[in-house]
Design brief:
Chain B: This is E3 ubiquitin ligase complex SCF subunit sconC. The complex is a heterodimer of chains A (594) and B (173). Chain A is of the alpha/beta class and 594 residues long. In chain A, 32% of the residues lie in helices and 19% in strands. In chain A, α2 crosses α3 and α14 crosses α15. The longest helix of chain A is centred in the first third of the chain and has 30 residues, at 36-65. Chain B has one domain: Potassium Channel Kv1.1, Chain A. Chain B is 45% helix and 10% strand. Chain B has helices at 42-54, 66-78, 101-106, 111-124, 127-141, 146-153, 161-164, 167-170; strands spanning 4-6, 20-24, 30-34, 58-61. Classes of the chains: A alpha/beta (594), B alpha+beta (173). At the A-B interface, α3, α4, α5, α6 and α18 of A face α2, α3, α4, α5 and α6 of B.
Chain lengths: 594, 173
C-alpha cells in the first residue's frame, strides 16, 4: 500500500502504520490503546527533535574534521579581530550587528568569539544603546574602540543625527574609550561638543572628520594623558594650547576653507615646540598666512623625534614654516604640496630649505616629495624608506634599500631638472640601488626654455651612484641614459665618443636590470653618429667584455614596426633568463596531494 | 617541542660566512636554507640559540609539508633584512591597515593552502605572516552572510535550534 492510498482507509492506515513504527521506536505497547493522535504527535516531535540533535552532532563531527576547525582558537580569534576592527562591509549590506554575524556560523566560532573580550570592544555606531551596553559588558572592561561613521544605510536617518545611543554611551563611557573615530557628520549636534569636554583618561587615538564642528578649547577637560594620535579634519577650531597635546606622537590637522583653525605663526610654533614626542606632523590648509618670506623671526623649533613632516597649502606659508623647523640630523621624510598664483619659478624659494636645511647634516631628508597643484613633481626616497612604500620590483635582496622615483609633469613650467639636481645634493645617491625616471618631454607651447633629462644631468646627478642595479626609464631619459653609459667626453659643447670602448663615466658596474620604455630606435646617439639599434648592442658587448653582470633588458617602443625591430634586437642578445623556482615545481606535486 | 636529529657537518655546512640550516618537513624533504632568511621565525631563532649552547648542529624537524615550508621560506626570503612592524613584540593590535600588495599576491592561494600557511607561521612564530594570513582570511569572509561564510570555509551549521535562537543571536543592534 502506498501513502497515496491512505485516504481510502482514512485514519486507520496512518494509525496502524505509525503505531507500529512508534512501538518499534519506544517499545511501549500501551500506545496502541491510549489517545493515539496526541501521543503520536508528541512522539513524532520527539523523534524529530532527536533527529535534529543527531544531525547537529554529525555536523559538529564534520566541523571537527574541517581544516578551519583545526586552527587554534587564538588564531581564529585573531582572524575575528580583523573582522571586528573593520566591519564596514557588513554594516553596508544592512547587517546591523556587523562582524557579530560570525558568531552565527557554528558553535565553535561563537564560543571563541564570546570567550575573547577584546573582540567586543569595537563599537561601530549606529548601534542601539542596549546592544552597545551588551558589547561593553562582553568586553569585560577592556577600553573600547568607538567609531561613528556616516553612510550606513541601515538607519535611514540623516547622517548628522548622532542618535542610537551614541551620546548616552559616550557620556557614560568616555572614561573607558581607547580610540574615538567620528567621521562624516556636520557637527550640528551640540551635545557632541559636551561629550568632547569630558575627561578621557584611556584615550590614545582621536580621529575626527567633521565639517563645522567647534572643538572646545577645554577638550577632554584637559585630561587625556595617554593620547598619542590626533587627526582632526574639517573642524572650525583646533585647541592648539590644550595640555592634552603635550604627549602626542602623530598629529594631523586639516582645515577647511575659511575655517577658524588658523593661528599665528608664533602661536603655531609655540604649540609645536611643546610637543616634544612629535614624530609625524601634517598641517594641511591650516597654515598661518604669509604672503612673502620677507619677515622672519629667530623662533626656530627643533622637534627631536620628528620623522615625517607634511605641509600643504599656499607656497609661501609652507616655506615659511619649513624655515622655522630644524630638521633632526637623523633625517625626516618631507612632503610638500604647494600652490601659488604666481609663476612656477616661485617654487625656487624651496631650494634653500631642501638643499641646505640643517646645513651640517649630510642627509637632512630621507625622503622629499613635492607636489604642485596635485601634480607629483618628484619623490626622493632615502634609506629610511619603510618597506610598505617599496613596490615589489624595487625590493632588493639585502636591506636597507635605496630607491629614487622621479615622476613629474612639466606642464607647470616647473624647473624640474634644477630642482632634481638640488634635491639630489640633499639626499646622498652614493648607495642608490633602484631608480625610476618618468619625465614628460618639455612642451614648447608653454614657451619655456627647453629642459631635458640629458647627458649632463645624468652624469652630474648620478655619476656617484655606483651601486645602481635597477633602472627604469621612459622616453628621452632612456636615450640619454644609454648615452651616459657609453664613453663620452665634452668638447666645445658637443658630445663625442670613442666607440672602441663604449663604456662611460656612468658605467654602473652593478647594473643588472635595465628597463627602457617608449624608446625610439631612430634616435641618434653619440654626437649623432649611431642610432639606438646599432648602439645598444655595442654597449652590452662592452659590458660583457668588462666583466659586468649580464643585463636583464626590457624595452618597449612607439610603433609596430619598431616593436618588430625590438624583438629582433632582443633576440640577438644573450639575455639573462631567470630559472624557474623550485617552488613552482614542488607546487604541482603538492596540488595533486590536496 | 620539535624533534631534533643530529646531523653531520657534511650535510649542513655552517662555518662559512653564510650559515645554513637544515629543515626537514613532515614529508621528509630536506631543505637547506640560510639562517639569516629564517631569522624572522622566533621558533627557529630559539632553536639556533640552542644549537650554539650545545656546540652541535642539528636538523630541525617541522610538522608540515615541504610545500608549505617552501612557501614560508619564500615569504621570509622576500622580507629578508627588512624590519616589519608586525614582528615587533610591542606592535599595536590589528587595525584597519590593508594587506601589503606583495603579501596579497603571495597569499592568493586556495583556502586550504591559506589555512596551512597560517598554521605553519603560527608554529614558527612569524607574527607578520600570521597577521597577513589572518587579514586574508578575514577579507574572505568580510561582508558575507552566515551561509556564505560556511560555504567559503567549509563549516557546517552545528547549532541546535535552541542555540540558534539564543540571546546572542537576537542582539541585532
Amino acid at each position: 500500500m502506498s501513502p497515496g492510498d491512505a485516504s481510502v482507509n482514512g485514519e486507520n492506515f496512518w494509525s496502524v502504520t505509525v503505531r507500529s513504527r512508534l512501538s518499534a521506536l519506544t517499545g511501549d505497547p500501551s500506545l496502541q490503546t491510549s489517545d493515539v493522535a496526541t501521543d503520536l504527535r508528541n512522539l513524532l516531535l520527539k523523534e524529530r527533535s532527536d533527529f535534529l540533535q543527531e544531525l547537529h552532532t554529525i555536523n559538529g563531527h564534520i566541523n571537527a574534521l574541517s581544516r578551519t576547525s583545526r586552527l587554534p582558537a587564538e588564531l581564529l580569534a585573531y582572524v575575528f579581530s580583523f573582522c571586528a576592527a573593520d566591519s564596514k562591509a557588513w554594516r553596508e549590506m544592512n547587517a546591523g550587528i556587523g562582524w557579530v554575524v560570525v558568531t552565527h556560523v557554528c558553535r565553535r566560532w561563537r564560543h571563541i568569539a564570546l570567550s575573547h573580550p577584546r573582540l567586543w570592544r569595537y563599537l561601530d555606531f549606529p548601534l542601539s544603546l542596549s546592544w552597545a551596553q551588551e558589547m561593553i559588558s562582553r568586553s569585560k572592561a577592556i577600553p573600547c574602540i568607538v567609531s561613528w561613521i556616516s553612510g550606513y544605510p541601515r538607519t535611514g536617518r540623516p547622517p548628522s543625527v548622532l542618535g542610537d545611543g551614541f551620546n548616552e554611551l559616550a557620556l557614560s563611557q568616555l572614561h573607558g574609550i581607547e580610540q574615538l573615530r567620528l567621521d562624516g557628520f556636520d557637527g550640528t549636534t551640540q551635545s557632541l561638543e559636551a561629550v568632547l569636554a569630558l575627561p578621557a583618561p584611556d584615550l590614545t587615538t582621536v580621529d575626527i572628520k567633521c565639517k563645522g564642528l567647534f572643538l572646545p578649547p577645554n577638550i577632554f577637560d584637559g585630561i587625556a594623558p595617554r593620547l598619542r594620535n590626533v587627526s582632526v579634519v574639517g573642524c572650525l577650531t583646533f585647541p592648539w594650547t590644550s595640555p592634552i597635546l603635550q604627549n602626542v606622537v602623530n598629529l594631523k590637522v586639516e582645515g577647511e576653507h575659511l575655517s577658524f583653525i588658523l593661528s599665528t605663526r608664533t602661536e603655531l610654533l609655540s604649540a609645536l615646540q611643546a610637543m616634544r614626542a612629535l614624530e609625524k606632523l601634517a598641517l594641511v590648509s591650516c597654515l598661518p598666512d604669509s604672503p612673502t618670506l620677507a619677515h622672519t623671526t629667530s623662533h626656530v623649533i627643533a622637534p627631536p623625534n620628528l620623522q615625517y613632516l607634511e605641509l600643504c597649502g599656499d607656497l609661501f606659508p609652507c616655506a615659511d614654516i619649513l624655515r622655522h623647523v630644524r630638521i633632526p640630523h637623523t633625517g625626516i621624510k618631507l612632503r610638500l604640496q604647494c600652490e601659488t598664483s604666481g609663476t612656477a619659478n616661485d617654487f625656487e624659494v624651496l631650494f634653500p630649505f631642501i638643499v641646505a636645511a640643517g646645513g651640517t647634516p649630510p642627509k637632512p631628508f630621507a625622503c622629499i616629495e613635492v607636489e604642485t597643484q596635485s601634480r607629483t613633481c618628484f619623490v626622493l626616497d632615502g634609506e629610511r624608506s619603510p618597506v610598505n612604500d617599496i613596490e615589489s620590483w624595487e625590493r632588493g635582496p639585502n636591506g636597507p634599500n635605496l630607491q629614487l622615483f622621479l615622476d613629474w609633469s612639466v606642464e607647470m613650467g616647473w624647473t624640474a631638472v634644477d630642482l632634481l639636481q638640488a634635491a639630489c645634493k640633499a639626499v646622498s645617491v652614493d648607495h642608490l640601488q633602484y631608480l625610476t625616471v618618468d619625465i614628460e618631454e618639455f612642451s614648447e607651447r608653454w614657451n619655456m626654455p627647453p629642459q631635458k633629462f640629458d647627458l649632463p644631468v645624468w652624469l652630474d646627478t648620478f655619476g656617484r651612484a655606483k651601486e645602481l642595479h635597477f633602472v627604469k626609464t621612459w622616453g628621452h631619459a632612456g636615450h640619454s641614459l644609454c648615452e651616459a653609459l657609453s664613453q663620452a667626453s665634452h668638447d666645445g659643447g658637443h658630445w663625442q665618443s670613442t666607440l672602441r670602448t663604449p663604456l662611460g663615466p656612468l658605467f654602473m658596474p652593478a647594473l643588472k636590470t635595465l628597463r627602457l620604455y617608449m624608446v625610439r630606435f631612430s634616435h641618434l646617439f653619440v654626437g649623432g653618429q649611431l642610432k639606438l639599434r646599432k648602439f645598444l648592442p655595442l654597449v652590452l658587448q662592452a659590458r660583457n667584455l668588462a666583466g659586468a653582470p649580464r643585463l636583464d633588458l626590457e624595452m618597449s617602443t612607439c610603433s609596430q614596426k619598431m616593436e618588430d625591430e625590438l624583438k629582433e634586437l632582443v633576440d640577438s642578445f644573450d639575455l639573462l633568463q631567470e630559472p624557474e623556482s623550485d617552488w613552482d615545481n614542488s607546487g604541482s606535486d603538492e596540488e595533486s596531494q590536496l | 617541542m620539535p624533534t631534533i636529529v643530529s646531523v653531520d657537518d657534511s650535510t649542513v655546512p655552517g662555518e662559512g660566512s653564510s650559515r645554513l640550516l637544515l629543515l626537514v618537513s613532515s614529508d621528509n624533504k630536506h631543505i637547506v636554507v640560510e639562517e639569516d632568511i629564517m631569522s624572522r621565525s622566533r621558533f627557529i631563532s630559539k632553536q639556533v640559540e640552542g644549537f650554539e649552547a650545545t656546540s652541535q648542529r642539528h636538523a630541525i624537524l617541522l610538522p608540515f609539508s615541504s610545500f608549505v615550508l617552501n612557501k614560508v621560506i619564500e615569504y621570509c626570503s622576500h622580507y629578508r633584512g627588512y624590519y616589519l612592524l608586525e614582528d615587533d613584540p610591542d606592535a599595536a593590535p590589528p587595525g584597519r591597515s590593508p594587506v601589503r600588495e606583495w603579501d596579497q599576491e603571495f597569499l592568493d592561494v586556495d583556502r586550504n593552502m591559506l589555512l596551512r600557511i597560517i598554521k605553519a607561521a603560527h608554529y614558527l612564530e612569524i607574527k607578520s605572516l600570521v597577521g597577513s594570513c589572518a587579514r586574508a582570511i578575514a577579507d574572505m569572509i568580510r561582508g558575507k552572510t552566515t551561509e556564505e561564510m560556511r560555504e567559503i570555509l567549509g563549516v557546517e551549521n552545528d547549532f541546535t535550534p535552541e542555540e540558534e535562537h539564543s540571546p546572542s543571536s537576537k542582539c541585532t543592534g
